[in-house]
Amino acid sequence: MTKLTATRLSETPGLNPRPSRKKPLLKKPLLKRIAKGGFVAALPFLAPALAAYVVFVIGPMFSAVRLSLYKWSGFTTDQQVFVGFQNYVRLFTKDPVFWTAVQNSIIWVLLSLVIPTSLGLMMALALNRPVFGRNVFRSVFYIPGVLAPIAIANMWRWMYNPNYGIFSDISKTLHLGDGSGVTFLSDPKVAIYAVFAAFVWQVAGLNMVLFLAGLQSVSKELVESAKLDGANAWQVFRNVTLPALRPTVVVVLVLTIVNSIKVFDLVVGMTGGGPAQKSQVLALWSYTQSFLNHDFGLGNATATVLLLITLVLVIPYMIWSTKGNED
Amino acid sequence: MSTLTIRRRTQRVDHTPRPRRNVDYIRVGLWIALAICMLVWAMPLIFVVLTSLKTENQIFSTSSFSLPSSAEWANYAKALATGNLLTAGGNSLLIAVIKVPIGLFISAAAAFALSRIKFKFSRGLLAAFALGSMVPIQVALGPLFRTILDLGLLNNPLGVILPYIGFGLPYQIFILYGFFTSVPKEIDESVRVDGGGNLRLFLQIILPLSKPALAALFILDFVSTWNEYAIALVILQNKASQTVPLAIQSFQSQFTSSYGPLNAFTLMSILPVVIIYLLFQRYFVQGMFTGAVKG
Predict the structure, then answer these.
(1) What ipTM, to 2 d.p.?
(2) Which of A72, A179, A202, A231 can pair with A226 through a Cys bridge, CB separation 3.0 to 4.6 Å?
(3) Which of A45, A168, A220, A261 is the mutation pick for testing B, counting most B CBs within 10 A?
(4) Would you tell me how many other CB atoms lie within 10 Å of the CB of residue A34?
(5) Tens digits of residue pLDDT in A236-248
(6) Contact B228/B243 with Cβ under 8 angstroms?
(7) What is the residue extent of each domain of chain B?
(8) Tens digits of per-residue pLDDT, B62-89?
């Protein structure tokens, strides 16, 4: 069926996406040069993706930047008033929660560059050899990564329950603290780290799988010959495994940064940013201002800051990886 | 190209018969340590399962790790009766079943154009798409809400399907681009010699050859569509249009202290994804492999 339709479509003159061959000319207008370059042929394949991407991703992002310069409640009936950089001034000088959110987002990125990544690497190293029950181990470590973050948030909220949760139970059995149970999520100093623990549980297995993939590119022969030369396990890891893993490490670190900046669901589900907004993060604060405080100006200014931070962190990687691909 | 090499290597490693040695005590020790780590890792899930099977009295009076004296299935019945799980599950399924194949097909077409048809700015375009996979969805949330409102698609499955397609593109295009470039270019020539155009090359050659990558992306995308929360939160505001993550969250805020049904609800909501994972395990790894190698 598909075969027939496909052939017939490509034979229909109007639908054949190949450009008609013309004599080469030296100087053509830009549009024609683009056409000659095959863009017309590519367009039918690109158009749906481009349309969806521009309307639902790029467009809204530019709108966010534009709206950050306006005062607006977000209601259709209200006017958008241009206020220049006033929203940013308000954000930077009169919004203490914004700085808490910035601080928490930075803490989050830094911690996640160290903890779930090294855990993932250790899991991968442990499971990169024939181990009894290896598949079960891998699955248990990886499964949290496929669960909805909002479900994970609920699971961990229950574990942190001050009266009946796991941690309270443990602290009571071990007679830690004053016996009133743990109150991680309602402690302004601890809340963000308590949420972060759930994040570690969620993403470490993902990193493990990436590292396991990377470990396949480590040359067995090189490891063997290093061992024959009398290198111990650490030396082999340091001098053979780690250099071969470098591209994987870069990918893991970039994904970690991207995922850390995006954190939203976990915080919504576990603390909602509280107590007293002490566990706010940028992504959630932007949402809160736009949709709960009905201040689209501040919300989109926060979103723009988030966008800029992401670009600053990600563009160096993009440049690095395109260079790498051209080799 | 690298993908292929790597898959071949994995297979070799997995099937190499190892020479038998005497019992290695260090290895046994390591294995036990690993098993303990695994137990700790499984703890949240075990705890949720245990709680979901206990009566209220047992939850309040027994230790977290004690087994329930008899399974309290009533929690599940209660969660189903009071929560919105079935409606939400239907909505999520509908959204995923429409979004995933369409999104994947659109991505594949774009990746095909970027990898097989030579035109100016194709690298720039690829970079523009790739960049999109890095930017947090929350940046666009406010204006996206406005766009959907203007289209009259609030509380409509289509109102999330369209943005999901948009936000799903970058990653899929990036991965498929990598996969398509690994298909030898000589194939293109032979199709063209036979008089076939791009459409034929795409539908009859490239797509069938890319089945493994497409299958892996299909599964990964299904799961992430099922799990998506932020966009759904903004667009789907009434109970009838809720997806599963929204239903979890509203059940949680409505029945804060009925711990048994609450955990039964969470458990039922993650069950489909866990089953999908167990059935299609290798696709998850494959999808990640392809992603990891191309970087």
Answers:
(1) 0.86
(2) A231
(3) A45
(4) 16
(5) 888 888 888 888 8
(6) yes
(7) 19-72, 80-294
(8) 777 778 877 788 889 888 888 889 999 9
